[in-house]
Amino acid sequence: MRFELIPIIDKMVELYEQPRTFERFEEYLNTLQGGIKGHLALPISGFNPMAKAHLLDKLAELKKLEAELVIERALKDLNNSHLQTHSDKNFKVLINLSDDLQGGWTNRFASDYDSRFRINGLFSRHFCTPIFWSSESYTQQLIVERTLEYVFRTIYWLTKPRPMTLKEHLAQEVFVASHLKSKNNYKQGEFGDLEAFYESHQDTENYHVIFNFFYGDSASESLAFPTYGVVEKITGYDYSKQLAASK
Predict the structure, then answer these.
(1) Torsion sign over Cα 25, 28, 30, 32
(2) In degrees to the nearest 10, what's the CA dihedral of 184, 187, 189, 191?
(3) What is the reported pTM?
(4) What is the tens place of the pLDDT at every residue in 19-66?
(5) Nearest 5°: phi and psi at 168?
(6) Neighbouring C-beta atoms of residue 173, cutoff 10 Å
(7) Cα separations (Å) of 129 from 152, 165, 231, 233?
(8) Is 235 helix (H, G, I), strand (E, B) or coil?
(9) Given this model, what pLDDT does residue 229 score?
(10) Can you name the residues that pair with 133 across neighbouring β-strands?
(11) β-strand partners of 131
(12) pLDDT score of 83
């Protein structure tokens, strides 16, 4: 299998340079659907079609860092590495820039969850869409790590079904953290409460419980979800890195 970048930054700059009118929205839909209603030609749904000028600034930051060139190099290294599978599937990688600053319809936590765990439609169409956020400060290292994070999720889905239980969600993120060699700066014993929470709920398919495990109480509160006492300092993503590091 291979991963190939589809450049999108220049196309989105052209779109955002247009006035925020219905014509811009129509062009966005045409780019997304390729002129065929219900079709997915380019997976740009993470972009806000009516974004304000600050998104142009963030795209300029990515362009200045040569984001797409950096990603192409990282994918080339991955394609040539020992991580190759024997699958004949080839995937198109296309970055998305989501607006969590002034995008009224974007909840970062819910969107982030969906981009990690609800990728059925993208996977079946052989797309991989790393998400970047308008509130972030970008570096070339972040760009590479974020892209590979999403690529490894795609690789995981080649042999695993969509995660349903908390245990299956965690297994996916441990796989990703293992291949990224994610840093683990936590001490033994700091995960006591979270580990107990996991042991009690690992077989649940309750979305609110799973969401809370990975994002914490404040994120759950922002969506009016129930809370279960998970603090943001140490969440399920941190726990996945801890488990990956201990392998």
Answers:
(1) negative
(2) -30
(3) 0.92
(4) 999 999 999 999 999 989 889 999 999 999 999 999 999 999 999 999
(5) -70, -35
(6) 25
(7) 12, 23, 28, 27
(8) coil
(9) 92
(10) 98
(11) 96
(12) 60
Q: Where are the domains of the chain?
A: 2-157, 166-245
H or E segment at 112? helix 108-117
For residue 203, how many other CB atoms are within 10 A of its CB? 10
Residue 231: band (very low, low, confident or very high) from pLDDT cuts 50, 70, 90: confident
The residue to which tokens 């969506």 are assigned:
223
Is the Cβ–Cβ distance between 89 and 158 less than 8 Å?
yes
Q: What is the mean pLDDT of residues 132-147?
A: 97
**Pair of tokens at residue 2:** 């291979």
Quote the mean pLDDT of the chain: 92
In sequence order, what are the beta bridge partners of 2? 90
Please check whether residue 232 is in contact with residue 218, taking contact to mean a CB–CB distance below 8 angstroms.
yes
How far, CA to CA in Å, does 26 sit from each of 30, 46, 63? 6, 16, 25
Q: Are 174 and 122 in contact (CB under 8 A)?
A: no
